[in-house]
């Protein structure tokens, strides 16, 4: 059984989808802990599902490195097989990435390498393209530059706003995340980069 830690910053909609998938007996992974960089709304999902949680507030640390060290200490208590960044809106320090990668994955609301960064949906609309997408990647030292594990296109409608487009991307993102976690657990998805 693959053990998973999930890190969030916000409402945790991807977390909830993963928790719902994992409660099925045939799902080969279990969320064992949820962490956040603030008092995030999504921590309520962990409580509802009886999953332990922790918070490592960003503002209580003097640097990204110091925050990452404490985050790493918290994760090390649980020794997860996989760490999922699910809406964590902080860049992890390189030392923490090095410690967990490639067992560290992230979702992104764009068809990478198109539109990396914190505003992928807004950037796609601003570019005037007709499609964007969702991706699940291995986290590396760059910003949304790691190996792509899964992705899918989403069409952009003429009347789309940032909100409406993001709402249509989210279900795709959730499905891809669940499929990737399942695939990692069964060995159908490899975290090792291709030679």
UniProtKB/TrEMBL annotation:
<dbReference type="InterPro" id="IPR002376">
    <property type="entry name" value="Formyl_transf_N"/>
</dbReference>
<dbReference type="InterPro" id="IPR036477">
    <property type="entry name" value="Formyl_transf_N_sf"/>
</dbReference>
<keyword id="KW-0658">Purine biosynthesis</keyword>
<keyword id="KW-0808">Transferase</keyword>
<feature type="domain" description="Formyl transferase N-terminal">
    <location>
        <begin position="4"/>
        <end position="181"/>
    </location>
</feature>
<feature type="binding site">
    <location>
        <begin position="89"/>
        <end position="92"/>
    </location>
    <ligand>
        <name>(6R)-10-formyltetrahydrofolate</name>
    </ligand>
</feature>
<comment type="pathway">
    <text>Purine metabolism; IMP biosynthesis via de novo pathway; N(2)-formyl-N(1)-(5-phospho-D-ribosyl)glycinamide from N(1)-(5-phospho-D-ribosyl)glycinamide (10-formyl THF route): step 1/1.</text>
</comment>
<dbReference type="Pfam" id="PF00551">
    <property type="entry name" value="Formyl_trans_N"/>
</dbReference>
<dbReference type="InterPro" id="IPR004607">
    <property type="entry name" value="GART"/>
</dbReference>
<comment type="function">
    <text>Catalyzes the transfer of a formyl group from 10-formyltetrahydrofolate to 5-phospho-ribosyl-glycinamide (GAR), producing 5-phospho-ribosyl-N-formylglycinamide (FGAR) and tetrahydrofolate.</text>
</comment>
<dbReference type="InterPro" id="IPR001555">
    <property type="entry name" value="GART_AS"/>
</dbReference>
<feature type="site" description="Raises pKa of active site His">
    <location>
        <position position="144"/>
    </location>
</feature>
<feature type="active site" description="Proton donor">
    <location>
        <position position="108"/>
    </location>
</feature>
<dbReference type="GO" id="GO:0004644">
    <property type="term" value="F:phosphoribosylglycinamide formyltransferase activity"/>
</dbReference>
<feature type="binding site">
    <location>
        <position position="64"/>
    </location>
    <ligand>
        <name>(6R)-10-formyltetrahydrofolate</name>
    </ligand>
</feature>
<feature type="binding site">
    <location>
        <position position="106"/>
    </location>
    <ligand>
        <name>(6R)-10-formyltetrahydrofolate</name>
    </ligand>
</feature>
<feature type="binding site">
    <location>
        <begin position="12"/>
        <end position="14"/>
    </location>
    <ligand>
        <name>N(1)-(5-phospho-beta-D-ribosyl)glycinamide</name>
    </ligand>
</feature>
<comment type="similarity">
    <text>Belongs to the GART family.</text>
</comment>
<protein>
    <recommendedName>
        <fullName>Phosphoribosylglycinamide formyltransferase</fullName>
        <ecNumber>2.1.2.2</ecNumber>
    </recommendedName>
</protein>
């Amino acid at each position: 059984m693959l053990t998973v830690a999930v890190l969030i910053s916000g409402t945790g909609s991807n977390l909830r989808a993963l928790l719902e998938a994992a409660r099925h007996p045939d799902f080969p992974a279990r969320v064992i802990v949820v962490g956040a960089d603030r008092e995030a709304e999504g921590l309520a999902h962990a409580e509802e599902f009886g999953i332990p949680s922790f918070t490592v507030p960003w503002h209580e640390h003097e640097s990204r490195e110091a925050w990452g060290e404490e985050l790493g200490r918290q994760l090390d208590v649980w020794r997860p097989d996989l760490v999922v960044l699910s809406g964590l809106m902080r860049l992890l320090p390189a030392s923490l990435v090095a410690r967990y990668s490639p067992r560290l994955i992230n979702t992104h609301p764009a068809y990478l390498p198109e539109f990396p960064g914190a505003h992928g949906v807004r950037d796609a609309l601003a570019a005037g393209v007709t499609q964007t997408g969702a991706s699940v990647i291995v986290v590396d030292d760059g910003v949304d530059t790691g190996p792509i594990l899964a992705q899918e296109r989403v069409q952009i409608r003429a009347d789309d706003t940032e909100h409406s487009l993001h709402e249509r991307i989210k279900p795709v993102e959730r499905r891809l995340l669940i499929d990737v976690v399942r695939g990692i657990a069964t060995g159908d998805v490899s975290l090792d980069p291709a030679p």
